[in-house]
Specification:
By secondary structure, the protein is of the alpha/beta class. The chain folds into three domains: 133 residues, Ubiquitin Conjugating Enzyme; 175 residues, no CATH class; 251 residues, NAD(P)-binding Rossmann-like Domain (Rossmann fold, 3-Layer(aba) Sandwich), CATH 3.40.50.720. Strands 16-15-14-17-18-19-20-21 form an eight-stranded mixed β-sheet, with helices on both faces. A hairpin with a 2-residue loop joins β11 and β12. α12 runs parallel beside α13 and α12 crosses α17. It is globular. Bound molecules: zinc ion. The site of zinc ion has 9 residues, from α16.
Length: 597
């Protein structure tokens, strides 16, 4: 791609845009100064009343660098509308999803003719129904329009909170960690979480879920919150602070020491569109940092020790607007509504290796309420090539590394782990770890066997059958050329031994297997199979799909259970890569199987 300005890449295009506008009765003037200096086409437009549906309107169109691959933007500085208009930039929202609704042969004139009248009609409408005109219902949360947020700084709230409407101000407690916001956008983050929203009479209206609070670190900071009748219409932290203070008749914030500075915190609560046709509480947080001078004086008086960090703002107080993050259970799970039933389910995973770790992470993300991870191995650096854990898990038990990982990606999934070695011969005199684990598993909804070991599979399938819980096993072949996922339900007519018979008689074909020998990395006690994480993950993903479907079944939201056994091929007979192919099999009891009671 050559980086000529678009009007040189498409020499006719600008003139065409101008003639189209003129044909529509729009008076337009290209700002030649901006075209020369900024290499941007900016047009001043005078749009007649027949298009705006009201009076003649002065507008500005800005053609982006990559026009016409993406549409021009239109601004109306004189317009006031509650919807479809950015209150600060004054950009008029003409297309619901610009990159989908814009075609590269479109023109600004077309946009104005086809979209503008309806956008203004809907934008001026008082009620939310009238304000809808794009096919996709969409909320316009006011907080999303602020641009002066401190970088890499956020305060977590729960979107499901409802603060009583007659409550107007009170104390707020925020657990805050990280450096004070500064100009360095790559700096460590500042993360806060609202631990308590209270009243001046000692009531607590809202608090973040304990599960989430466990992930928060740092210092408890005491501030004030106040309710505003509408969002602050100035994009500025100081203005929001002042509005909050004005609305807080009975309280003032107090300074606290944080990171060697004196800080205060204020939160404001205002009505905000948080869903289509839905208005609820929006939050904005302002962190005030007292100017540096007093800090410097204190430093001079200190004797010995490391110098205190000082802010470098000069004498003026700083105000930082902190982004609001919605981190409640329903906020996080809203993206996977199909699998809400998983929130009450308990799943045990035996084997926290490459396939087991991926299964655990995806189940956590899908919203499984409780995971039990069992594995005796330690995470080696070399495991990272296909284990889901990251470097900060190296040296931990794999089960612990996976537990930590799941907690960090799925804050509302409880994770416990056990370093039991399952499937081998136990040391003399040691109790059988499986005996105790089996007792615990009785309350579980699924046992996932990611041991990838035939002997262990026999043991675990037998235990699952005896205690009456479903069993799901997954395995990949050497080289990750193929894999298999098998699901044996509680009421299944066939058993794991039947599956072995079906594999033996080739009713179920063995998935492709790399002829390359196992590899034994230096220092490892046992050879390990070869194979890349992106191939292995295909097996894990299918296992998770099966688990999520089965666990959601019966709660009215699941699809059909699918197949008992699924076999995947990633290579053809010549060993060349193919698209992943899955074949499903439904089984009944094998005639030769003697394992049934
Ligand atoms: Zn059987």
């Amino acid at each position: 791609m050559s980086f000529l300005p678009w009007w040189q890449r498409y020499p006719e295009r600008l003139q065409w845009e101008i003639s189209e506008l003129q044909a529509l009765g729009v008076v337009c003037r290209v700002d030649e100064e901006k075209r020369t200096e900024n290499q941007t086409v900016v047009m001043e437009l005078s749009v007649p009343g027949v298009l705006t549906g009201t009076a003649e309107l002065n507008m500005t169109a800005v053609f982006p660098d990559y026009y016409p691959l993406v549409p021009p933007k239109v601004f109306a500085a004189d317009l006031e509308m509650p919807h479809h208009l950015n209150p600060f930039s004054k950009e008029v929202c003409l297309l619901g999803t610009p990159s989908e609704e814009w075609g590269t042969n479109g023109s600004l004139a077309q946009l104005l003719r086809d979209q503008l009248p309806e956008a203004i009609r809907a934008g001026l409408s008082d009620d939310h129904e009238g304000a809808e005109w794009n096919e996709k219902p969409q909320a316009e949360p006011y907080g999303a329009y602020y641009t002066t947020y401190a970088s890499a700084a956020m305060v977590l709230v729960d979107g499901s909170w409802s603060i009583p409407e007659d409550a107007v101000h009170g104390p707020i407690e925020i657990r805050l960690a990280g450096p004070l916001p500064g100009p360095d956008v790559t700096a460590a983050r500042t993360l806060g979480g609202v631990v308590a929203v209270g009243s001046d009479t000692g009531q607590t209206y809202a608090t973040l879920d304990n599960q989430l609070q466990e992930l928060l670190e740092g210092q408890l900071v005491h501030g004030r919150w106040s309710r505003l009748t509408s969002a602050v219409n100035v994009d500025d932290a100081r203005a929001i602070w002042d509005a909050g203070q004005k609305a807080d008749s009975s309280g003032s914030t107090r300074e606290e020491s944080y990171q060697g500075c004196r800080i205060q915190v204020r939160a404001v609560l205002f009505p905000e569109e948080t869903g289509p046709r839905k208005v609820s509480d929006g939050w904005a947080f302002v962190l005030k940092v007292r100017g540096a001078q007093q800090q410097n004086n204190k430093n001079k008086n200190r004797r010995g020790g490391a110098p205190r960090p000082v802010s470098v703002s000069g004498g003026a107080d700083q105000y930082h607007l902190l982004r609001t993050g919605r981190a409640g259970r329903s906020d996080i799970r809203a993206r996977v509504p199909e699998h809400l039933p998983l929130a009450t389910k308990k799943v045990a995973i035996i084997g926290a290796g490459a396939i087991g770790s991926a299964v655990a992470v995806h189940l956590g993300r899908a919203g499984v309420g409780h995971l039990f991870v069992i594995d005796a191995d330690v995470l080696e650096p070399g495991n990272l090539v296909r284990h889901s854990a990251s470097f900060d898990g190296v040296g931990l038990l794999k089960a612990a590394a996976v537990a930590r990982l799941v907690r960090s990606v799925a804050p509302y999934t409880q994770v416990v782990f056990n370093p039991a070695y399952v499937g081998g011969s136990r040391p003399q005199g040691e109790p059988d770890p499986l005996r105790q684990i089996s007792e615990e598993l009785r309350s579980y909804h699924l046992l996932i066997d990611a041991s990838a070991d035939r002997g262990t599979q026999r043991i675990l399938a037998t235990i699952a059958r005896e205690i009456g819980i479903p069993y799901l096993s997954l395995e990949a072949t050497n080289g990750a050329w193929g894999g298999m996922v098998a699901y044996i339900g509680q009421d299944s007519s066939w058993c794991h031994s039947c599956l072995e018979w079906f594999r033996f008689d080739k009713t179920i074909p063995d998935p492709a297997n790399s002829p390359v020998a196992y590899t034994q990395p230096v220092g490892c006690a046992q050879p390990t199979f070869t194979g890349a994480s992106f191939d292995l993950e295909e097996v894990s993903l299918q296992a998770v799909r099966t688990a999520a479907t089965q666990l959601s079944a019966g709660d009215g939201s699941a699809a059909t259970p699918g197949f008992d056994v699924a076999v995947m091929e990633l290579r053809n007979e010549a060993g060349e890569r193919t698209l992943p192919t899955w074949n499903g099999y439904n089984l009944t009891r094998h005639a030769e199987c003697t394992a049934h009671p």
